[in-house]
């Protein structure tokens, strides 16, 4: 038995499924999860001292790589000053100013503790601001475990949403309309009949929770138009894309401006942080300025602000995202070449420092049903093979891959050579 296997056995005695977030249990790929004890730069080290090149980066936050000295120094200094006061601090304003500078659509920003809290708060705010109950989301997009957003489409395009999990009241889910990602016509159709009841459209501007699906030209622009026509709040969930696909996020990359934005992951530099912000006229409805309630014991915690602000300053260095995008493209193209060399049909897609690969004959994947039709069994074998080769990919065919600034050319070459070896066995 490996140390990871032993630790997993013990964990299952006390933690549901042995994990604190379901995807970590490796149910999507089989086998037992790897337990890690250390990480540095581009690498994770497991409890059996095996090294892996990391393409998850703690599911996005570690954009600088692990153990960045600047973050460690900032955290050590703050620990000596105090780990939290539950009262205002100067660094919160510094952080808010930085976020507003980097994401111009954000005029006021509120810090929270996770991406889920961020999206949940944008939905409440949009409902409070418009006085409407219904919201639109898209199939295959994930916005955290918010009741209103853990909803799937009912049968038929315009029917009521149904809960995706027991515990979510049908009476709440019925306010959520789930449409097809990248299909602006279905959005226009829906708004024709019930536009004046819809508080918000929430969208991942690059979908990263059904592998990696960039928006087709006109989709985000169309959402903006529809929202303007109907007085609906456009929410970009940039928890994953924020500060990653470009310094200004997906809205910077595609030039479409939302009313509200949810942020998470990179903004916390590895600590538990989220944020939401947007137009001043909407954000002023949040307590204590307005009647929409939102609060948090640890929100704006100084340790989290230190790690986040240090990360945002580091990624603001000129050329940072160009270099990271280049590396990401090299990884994606390398995977494609490895597949071509072995005759395996593979499609690669990406945006900035996010990438995805699909075992499919389709030249591009733009919708959830196409993702579901990919060869998931082949993905599982590929994942396990890469793990043996010391490459740690997301343990699910439905997650995007992330690169970090610590990834070297040698790491990329190792990854591509490993992919060639593994593809040859599929
Ligand atoms: N929104 C998106 C796009 C996400 O990818 C995630 C998490 O993966 C969330 C929201 C939820 O964030 P958290 O897990 O920090 O609650």
UniProtKB/TrEMBL annotation:
Modification type N6-(pyridoxal phosphate)lysine: residues: 265
GO cellular component, one term: cytoplasm
Major enzyme class: isomerase
Pathway this chain belongs to: Porphyrin-containing compound metabolism; protoporphyrin-IX biosynthesis; 5-aminolevulinate from L-glutamyl-tRNA(Glu): step 2/2
Catalytic activity: (S)-4-amino-5-oxopentanoate = 5-aminolevulinate
The protein's Enzyme Commission number: 5.4.3.8
InterPro entries for the chain: 4pyrrol_synth_GluAld_NH2Trfase, Aminotrans_3, Aminotrans_3_PPA_site, PyrdxlP-dep_Trfase, PyrdxlP-dep_Trfase_major, PyrdxlP-dep_Trfase_small
GO terms, biological process: protoporphyrinogen IX biosynthetic process
Cofactors demanded by this protein: pyridoxal 5'-phosphate
Superkingdom of this protein's organism: Bacteria
UniProt main location, coarse: cytoplasm
Compartments (UniProt record): Cytoplasm
Record carries keyword Glycoprotein: no
A molecular function (GO) term: transaminase activity
Keyword terms of this UniProt record: Cytoplasm, Isomerase, Porphyrin biosynthesis, Pyridoxal phosphate
Family: Belongs to the class-III pyridoxal-phosphate-dependent aminotransferase family. HemL subfamily.
UniProt subunit comment: Homodimer.
Annotated NCBIfam families: hemL, PRK00062.1
Record-given protein name: Glutamate-1-semialdehyde 2,1-aminomutase
Organism (species): Marinobacter gudaonensis
Source lineage: Bacteria, Pseudomonadati, Pseudomonadota, Gammaproteobacteria, Pseudomonadales
